[in-house]
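In this section we walk through a basic example: taking a raw amino acid sequence and producing a predicted 3D structure, encoded as discrete structure tokens. The instruction is simple. Fold the sequence below.
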Amino acid sequence: MSKEKAGDDYALSRVPSNVRRPMWEVLVIRLGCLACVSQVMLGAALGYGMTFWGAFWATMFGSVILQAVSFAIGAAAAKEGLSTSLLSRWSGFGKAGSSIIGGIIAISLMGWFGIQNSVFAEGIYKATGIFNMQIWSAITGLVVTIIVVYGYKVLSLTADVTLPLFLCTMVYAGFKLLSGHDIGNLIMTAQPAGKILSMGAATTMVAGGFITGAIITPDLSRYMKGPKDVFAATVVSTFVGELTINLLGVLMALAVRTSDIVSIMLSITGWLGAGIVIFSTLKINDINLYSASLGITNMIDAIFNIKLNRAAATWGIGIFSTILSMLGIINYFQSFLTLLGVTLPPVAGIIFVDYYILKRDRKLLEATRHDENLPESCEIINPIAIVAWIIASIIGKFINIGIPAIMSLLAGAIIYYLVSIIYKAVTKSEKIEFKRTVDI
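The resulting token sequence is shown next.
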């Protein structure tokens, strides 16, 4: 039985060239991650606290950040056939360091799973009026968990079904919005109904809203055939999914005067449209759970040297995340986005510097790429990367200069590069390297 059929999906190995997928197939999955109800929620949050043009520029700035991050590390993953967690082992963090990063990303994704699952459950509860939120959260969480257990192929099938339904619903909602309101007034003069958002906070919400998705781009792009495919897929998905859907959510919030997405969709499209939009959470939530399972699998392997099957990890994470949604994590949506917007970007900055600039383990990766094996050794941990990540996160959180998401991303990359170069000069080493292990 192949690793893919066993539900492992190459969690601890390279994706072989003979199972790589066409660009459009991965694009559909990725577009499904962005063109989803959480983007409408984000757009509604922006429209509730900003004018249309303020929200436009916040979305544009945030989208540029996401595109740059997604392509940079996604292209490396397509070249190497490695998930985010495995790529980080040979791109800055080492085995133990990658376990920390994998664990943090998994925790973030479990939070997103709880948010999305709560939206799904709330929509079904309001539509049916039976049971309660907790019961529906348990049911919907179990459904998504079962889907993800079967891996990439079922993720693709889910996106093929839900994405067209969602896009058609949003087109219809846009048409209804245009016909029922003065679109010129909404764009040019309409004022937000809620507390005013600053540009920095709004841009961080946009970047933070999908920064985890950008960082886990390798989990999907490792199935692509090369960097060109990654560039095409990330450009289309980021700007179509992020810009278009967000701005439609902004207009809806300005028109309906609320940030409650269920109320917005009900007022514009009725229960059928609202149901389809809510149902679309399946296609983003299965990716959340899928990538979380890859991160946890890597973490367990790195810490305990146990080759945990990805499907088994999925069951454990799915059940735990479902409990989070039953406890009402949806109430912390906006603050959760802001926190992600400053703590996760430094990870991508460090991976970028190590893989593309310092190239510390590139020769090892290149030497084993043709045979589609992993290098025979890796660093145990790179303390410079860990320190750079912590400092960059603190800078993004507490130094209010510019856009926090950009600040933390650049800080992570710059600090890691400078300290690495200083370490090399002080130690007079030919190569920046720490203690290695052959137990990969």
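Looking at the output, two observations stand out. The chain has a mean pLDDT of 87. Residues 195 and 396 are 23 Å apart (CA to CA). In the next section we compare this with other chains.
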